[in-house]
Design goal:
The protein is α/β, with parallel strands linked by helices. It contains eleven helices and ten strands. The chain folds into two domains: 48 residues; 276 residues, Glycosidases (TIM Barrel). 31% of the residues lie in helices and 15% in strands.
Length: 364
């Protein structure tokens, strides 16, 4: 006798409910998308959140119009963006060190060898002038270093020297001499040309070169890091002070900076920004930082044409060296001391072939 066949049928009592819910969710999602795009023009964005406005509120009072696609266009305003350069005239002095007067003798770049400078204590002992300092030209406007540097950028662009000076400098310091390293700051023909991205650009986009040298960009990050790395290395070698020359821009030249800016700064703002940065770095390094002003431009009131604000220089540099001559050194020193109004040891009169009887001076 055949057994009856049994067929299993799953329970489907509530399956239709799940289907209905999914169908309703899809409809709600599609409706939401339609509402968002169709009613977007009625959405008002406010500081407290979003709100909806009616047809009557979309008026010209809001100075808003729809474009051809039906999307509400942004309101038209007459606002003018004004970008101002930093005002350094109100900045307080960053100088905290108190320095003694110096009577310094200059060592030119072509004499910067360990053998030559080792003789200077004996030379100074025989001099009628009581020199207590040496200023050595470590980096001139040609951009070549006069010592062997460990800075990677120096080797990369072949601007390194061959002299190892640390031991000789230690011997000089043991005699009580104050050691100053002169460094051409932005005037640097070798680095500006060989590493052109950090070179200051002329109006045509080429590296700016005048009758003196090629120039580095004061706003370029690598320029600033390069100068600071030299300052740190000179401190480690035994120098007490760094004297920056060519802390300026070529007068009367149209320039382009490598960094993107919303407004082109004037030359004084560009140089002042660099000087303030270097002052902060010198404090971290722990070295005295000085700069040179040109006597004739200071006398004629044209320092700012080169980006140099003499009053600002006295706010950021420990000393200011005034490069002058025998005919005008009294006048130029008087102008500088009047700007400073403090200790005469902060103004160093720099004269070719001439030694002063008092105050701080540099005999070149």
């Amino acid at each position: 006798m055949d057994r009856p066949k049994r067929v299993y049928r799953g329970r489907r009592k509530y399956g239709w409910i799940v289907t209905l819910v999914l169908f309703l969710l899809i409809i709600a999602l599609m409706a939401g998308i339609w509402v968002f795009y169709d009613r977007q023009k009625y959405i008002r964005y406010e500081k407290d959140g979003l709100s909806l406005v009616g047809e009557g509120e979309l008026s010209v009072d809001n100075e808003e119009e729809e474009d051809e696609s039906g999307i509400l266009a942004p309101p038209v305003t007459n606002a003018q963006v004004v970008i101002e350069m930093p005002d350094y005239s109100t900045m307080k002095s960053m100088v905290t060190s108190s320095l003694d007067t110096i009577q310094a003798l200059y060592v030119d770049a072509d004499k910067m060898t360990a053998q030559n400078i080792a003789y200077y204590p004996a030379i100074l002992a025989e001099s009628p002038t009581k020199y207590n300092a040496l200023v050595m030209n470590i980096k001139d406007r040609d951009g070549m270093l006069r010592y062997y540097s460990q800075i990677p950028l120096v080797s990369s662009y072949s601007v390194n020297g061959t002299e190892t000076l640390k031991e000789t400098l230690g011997n000089l310091k043991s005699t009580g001499l104050w050691l100053v390293a002169e460094v051409s700051c932005l005037g640097d023909s070798a680095m500006a040309v060989r590493n052109s991205p950090i070179g200051l650009k002329n109006s045509m986009g080429g590296v700016l070169t005048d009758e003196n040298c090629s120039w580095l960009d004061p706003y370029n990050t690598q320029t600033r890091e390069y100068i600071v790395s030299i300052m740190q290395e000179l401190k480690d070698m035994g120098f007490d002070e760094v004297l920056l020359t060519n802390v300026c821009l070529p007068a009367g030249q149209a320039v382009q900076y490598s960094q993107p800016m919303s407004a082109v700064p004037d030359s004084v703002s560009a140089i002042s920004s660099l000087c303030r940065y270097l002052r902060q770095q010198a404090d971290d390094i722990g070295i005295v930082l000085s700069a040179e002003l040109d006597g004739p431009t200071l006398r004629e009131g044209k320092s700012k044409d080169m980006g140099q604000d003499p009053e600002f220089f006295y706010k950021v540099f420990d000393r200011v060296y005034v490069r002058t001559n025998m005919d005008y050194y009294i006048t130029d020193a008087g102008i500088a001391n009047e700007i400073d109004g403090s200790s005469p040891s902060r103004t160093v009169v720099s004269v070719d072939g001439f030694s002063l009887q008092n105050g701080s001076f540099l005999t070149r």
